[in-house]
Design a protein that fits this description.
Length: 365
């Protein structure tokens, strides 16, 4: 199990992926035992001595079992369990909501080690994960630790100082909602935008890569390098971008953000960035659409999100090429189906989010 083997089946196929992979259960068959009476006139106890009635055995075993138990086996025998979307304190929304652990601690926790949680209490998984993607937000990656520590550049901005003071007084959730609103509308103050190619951003990305490299243990635990491309704010046209590569290739780029000129809010531009990455590095990368249930239908609209452009053949083929998987469930709701689409499915309303987009600024129709 390594980065290449776990992602190899995804490229070039269209599949569905839950945040945690589907469980493949196993059953233990209980052999049937025929209680066969001794033949009439036969010696007493003949039935107990191993006498087999051929007709009874044919009813129990209608066909001869294969010599090899693997014949005609077409189901996975080694499912892997992990998480393709995890935020640390490097993501400003997670940090404002209380996350204080960095990528290294996240990977340690996923590997089954005991860590001190953000609340100050010891925490440990009952069973280690097989893989993890630390997918911190592409935009402002690494900003929150600076805000929490009272970085002079952050504190010089009135909004930065106010957010710092609110967090220190326990109003982190209020700060979180202000951040979401800002990213969905006018954007953050210039002084609070940590952009690619700046020292703070570059440090955060390099630390993320280093944490994955340290935690990766082929055959035991796979630490993927990745990030979340967070476009269109509260409408969640988001993608988890996951590298099949290690530090040598991933460190040749910095995440594609949503702010021009170093980024774009269009998914088609993200796909072009991914193609450029593969062409320049010889690497391999894919994207998994994330939380489409909060997009108010835009993730699978009849036109390209926030445009009048049609969903044409070029768009469909590009999406199939770069997004062979889709996330169907997450802590913010299930996106596999809906009672409107599946009226006869009794589970179609499981964890359905029908309120609106992320910050409820637009209700669902």
């Amino acid at each position: 199990m390594n980065r290449k083997s776990l992602l190899s089946s995804a490229k070039g196929s269209v599949s569905i992926l839950a945040t945690i992979l589907a469980l493949q259960g196993s059953s233990l068959a209980t052999p049937a035992v025929a209680q066969v009476a001794p033949p009439v006139g036969g010696p007493a106890g003949a039935g107990d001595a191993g006498h087999i009635d051929p007709d009874a055995m044919r009813r129990i075993l209608p066909s001869r079992p294969a010599y090899s138990p693997h014949v005609n086996r077409n189901f996975p025998t080694r499912p892997f369990f992990g998480d393709t979307h995890l935020h640390t304190s490097y993501s400003m929304d997670a940090g404002a909501a209380g996350a204080r652990l960095d990528p290294r601690a996240a990977y340690r926790f996923a590997r089954g080690e005991q860590v001190t949680a953000s609340a100050g209490l010891p925490a440990q998984l009952s069973r280690p994960l097989d893989f993890l993607v630390v997918a911190d937000h592409s935009d402002n990656m690494g900003f929150f630790p600076l805000l929490l520590d009272g970085d002079p550049g952050v504190m010089a901005d009135p909004t930065g100082r106010r957010w710092h003071d609110m967090i220190q007084s326990g109003q982190g959730v209020d700060v979180l909602m202000e951040m979401v609103t800002a990213l969905s509308g006018p954007g953050l103050p210039e002084a609070l935008n940590l952009l690619p190619e700046t020292p703070g951003y570059r440090t955060a990305w390099r630390e993320t890569i280093a944490a994955a490299e340290e935690a990766n243990d082929p055959g035991r635990f796979t630490a993927f390098i990745g990030y979340e491309w967070t476009a269109q704010g509260a409408f969640n046209i988001h993608r988890n971008v996951i590298f099949r590569d290690g530090a040598q290739r991933a460190s040749m780029v910095e995440p594609f953000t949503t702010l021009p000129p170093l980024g774009s809010p269009r998914e088609t531009d993200l796909w072009r960035w991914m193609a450029d990455y593969e062409a320049r590095t010889g690497g391999d990368v894919l994207a998994i659409p994330h939380n489409g249930n909060l997009s108010n239908g835009l993730m699978f609209g009849l036109t390209q999100p926030f445009t009048d452009l049609p969903i044409d053949q070029d768009y469909v083929e590009a999406r199939a090429r770069w997004e062979p998987l889709y996330e169907i469930t997450q802590t913010k709701g299930d996106g596999e189906t809906h009672p409107f689409l599946s009226p006869n499915d009794e589970f179609a309303d499981f964890e359905t989010w029908d309120k609106g987009n992320l910050d409820i600024s637009q209700a669902k129709d």
